[in-house]
């Protein structure tokens, strides 16, 4: 680290003087006492607390210094310092005043970026650097001092503003703030599926002794591993998600943000953070050291980190993270389509899987017809591997395609909603008599508000140039049922699913001039102030019906 040795020595010297003068009961003038008190209080505010984790915020390229004093009281005074970067790599060093440079020290974790300075080396201006480190790993220094000593820790971030946590303790006999990791802290992948990964890890020693105060928490994401819990927390916050403290891993009753989903089952807490960069899952599973992560995406690489958390202090220690790629999604089963045959396909909206249909053309011109029964469906048609149609369909949709004999067409269907969808599919030669009737430009039913009475309503709908049969049905409903009735309506179902009492009339109608292909009907015998749902069914030569979109109309209450 770049330092000004003069300015380092000056505060150390003054602080040592202030500390010594503070303990000597000698007569002084009031001005001298005031200066020493102010000086001591200034440096006391930068003293690291013993036995407490301290959060330190660093500004880019601005060093920050903290001090601690080891008082003479026993032959070898041990101390431990743990620094946890919560974002980018940082540089940090431990320096000691030369007047108390009789010490022994070592790094608890080996690292190629870690450098230790021998006690025989002499730094200029009475200051020695005994340890320095650069990186973003959690690093612990353990040392011993044989004399009273004043130490300084200097921290520097050269990439951007960040924060770290620092833990200093001189009590090495009453246990550790951080849970202890096993000798082998690796996470093993013991099973990989299309949508699951099974992990196992060796128990943390405190788990075997204090099960009620310790638990394991797993973090899953698609970007990279995290070396500490605060690093993971910082990364998730930077993606635009506001988290409760310590990722809510201590099961504290914090309220979740709108971007979070909490799932609690079988004594496991799962929190899914939905961000633009993907989702981050946190699963706490008590003291189980084997876990199968469910609901993953096929052909995707995931990173897994396990943290052992002390529920009393919220302190945590990270296992060595791992990663795994889920298996490729199996090729979907392909169903062969036959000329003129109609099949109905049910699509699972939750799994978002494709349903594949294949057809080998026996003619140059063919026509695919899709009738959406309910939900939302995306249709993708390829010919010999090249896309010829890609569309979200509604109602009845036909695709007339031209190619060569023996061309291979592949139709892939997928629900675009999380709810289930259903669609009817037919393929036939272009000259083949169509199974579905000729449909108008719009399948909407229109009602005329001014023509409503207490016991009648007037509706209208478009027809075609082909003479067809139209049947009208009505159903009495409550106002709070309208949304559900419209959403759950099966557009593929015909009048056979309706009660006979709901039938109003059937009529034949057509017009060569499409501008005049409109028909109206006044339905009488209704109750005043009552809401009705009206449906119109269109029948073609084959007898297969096409259902218009339902229309809700309420009769007048007073006339």
Kindly describe this structure.
The protein is mainly beta. Helix 1 packs across helix 2. The longest helix is centred in the first third of the chain and has 19 residues, at 5-23. The relative contact order is 0.09. It is found in: Secreted.
Structural descriptors:
single chain; 559 residues; mainly beta; Jelly Rolls; Immunoglobulin-like; 4 domains; 7-stranded antiparallel beta sheet; 5-stranded antiparallel beta sheet; 5 helices; 37 strands; elongated; glycoprotein; heparin binding; signal; FN3_dom; NDNF
Overall mean confidence score, pLDDT: 79
DSSP strand (E) fraction?
Answer: 35-45%
Estimated radius of gyration: 38 Å
Q: What is the second-level CATH architecture of the largest domain?
A: Sandwich
Write the layout of secondary structure elements.
Blueprint: H1 5-23, H2 30-44, E1 52-58, E2 64-70, E3 77-85, E4 90-97, E5 103-107, E6 115-116, E7 127-135, E8 139-145, E9 149-156, E10 162-169, E11 187-192, E12 197-201, H3 205-209, E13 214-221, H4 229-238, E14 260-265, E15 268-275, E16 278-284, E17 290-293, E18 301-310, E19 316-318, E20 322-325, E21 334-336, E22 342-347, E23 355-360, E24 365-374, E25 377-383, E26 386-393, E27 396-402, E28 408-415, E29 421-429, E30 446-447, E31 457-462, E32 468-476, H5 482-488, E33 503-509, E34 518-523, E35 531-539, E36 545-547, E37 551-554
Parallel strand pairs: 21-23
Antiparallel strand pairs: 1-10, 2-9, 3-8, 3-10, 4-7, 4-9, 5-8, 6-7, 11-12, 12-17, 13-16, 13-18, 14-15, 15-16, 18-19, 18-20, 22-29, 23-28, 24-27, 24-29, 25-26, 25-28, 30-31, 31-34, 32-33, 32-35, 35-36, 35-37
Helix pairs in contact: 1-2
């Amino acid at each position: 680290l770049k330092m000004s040795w003069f300015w380092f020595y000056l505060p150390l010297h003054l602080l040592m003087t202030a500390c010594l003068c503070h303990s000597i009961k000698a007569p002084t003038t009031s001005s001298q006492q005031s200066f020493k008190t102010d000086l001591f209080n200034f440096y006391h505010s930068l003293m690291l607390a013993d036995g407490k984790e301290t959060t330190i915020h660093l500004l880019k390229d601005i060093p920050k210094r903290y001090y601690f004093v080891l008082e003479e009281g026993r032959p070898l005074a041990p101390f431990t310092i743990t620094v946890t970067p919560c974002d980018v790599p940082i540089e940090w060093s431990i320096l000691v005043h030369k007047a108390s440079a009789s010490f022994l020290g070592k790094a608890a974790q080996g690292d190629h970026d870690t450098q230790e300075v021998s006690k025989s080396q002499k730094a200029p201006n009475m200051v020695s650097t005994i340890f320095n480190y650069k990186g973003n790993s959690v690093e612990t220094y353990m040392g011993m001092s044989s004399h009273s000593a004043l130490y300084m820790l200097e921290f520097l971030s050269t990439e951007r503003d960040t924060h770290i946590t620092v833990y200093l303790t001189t009590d090495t006999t009453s246990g550790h703030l951080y849970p202890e990791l096993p000798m082998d802290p690796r996470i093993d992948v013991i099973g990989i599926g299309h949508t699951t990964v099974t992990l196992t890890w060796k128990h943390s020693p405190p788990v075997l002794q204090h099960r009620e105060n310790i638990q394991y928490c797993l973090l899953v994401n698609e970007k990279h591993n995290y070396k500490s819990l605060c690093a993971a927390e910082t990364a998730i916050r930077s993606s635009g998600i506001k988290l409760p403290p310590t990722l809510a891993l201590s099961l504290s009753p914090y309220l979740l943000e709108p971007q979070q989903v909490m799932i609690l089952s079988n004594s496991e807490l799962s929190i899914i953070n939905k961000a633009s960069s993907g989702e981050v899952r946190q699963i706490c599973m008590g003291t189980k050291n084997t876990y199968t992560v469910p609901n993953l995406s096929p052909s995707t690489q995931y990173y897994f980190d396990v943290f052992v958390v002390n529920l009393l202090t919220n302190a945590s220690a990270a296992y060595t993270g791992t990663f795994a790629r889920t298996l490729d999604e199996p090729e979907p089963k392909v169903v062969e389509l036959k000329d003129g045959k109609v099949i109905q396909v049910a699509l699972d909206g939750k799994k978002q899987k494709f349903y594949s249909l294949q057809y080998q053309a026996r003619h140059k011109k063919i026509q695919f017809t899709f009738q959406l029964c309910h939900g939302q469906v995306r249709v993708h048609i390829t010919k010999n591997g090249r896309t010829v149609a890609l569309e979200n369909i509604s109602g009845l949709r036909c695709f007339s395609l031209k190619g060569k004999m023996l061309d291979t067409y592949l139709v892939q269907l997928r629900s675009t909603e999380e709810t289930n969808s259903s669609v009817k599919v037919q393929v036939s030669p272009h000259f083949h008599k169509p199974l579905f009737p000729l449909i108008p430009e719009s399948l909407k039913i229109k009602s005329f508000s001014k023509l409503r009475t207490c016991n009648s309503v007037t509706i209208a709908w478009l027809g075609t140039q082909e003479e067809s049969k139209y049947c009208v049905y009505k159903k009495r409903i409550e106002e709070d049922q309208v949304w559900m009735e419209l959403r759950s309506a099966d557009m593929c179902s015909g009048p056979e699913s309706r009660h006979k009492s709901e039938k109003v009339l059937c009529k034949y109608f057509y017009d060569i001039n499409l501008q005049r292909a409109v028909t109206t009907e006044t339905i009488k015998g209704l109750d005043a102030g009552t809401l009705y749902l009206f449906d119109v069914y269109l029948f073609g030569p084959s007898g297969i019906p096409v259902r218009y979109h339902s229309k809700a109309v309420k009769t007048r209450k007073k006339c």
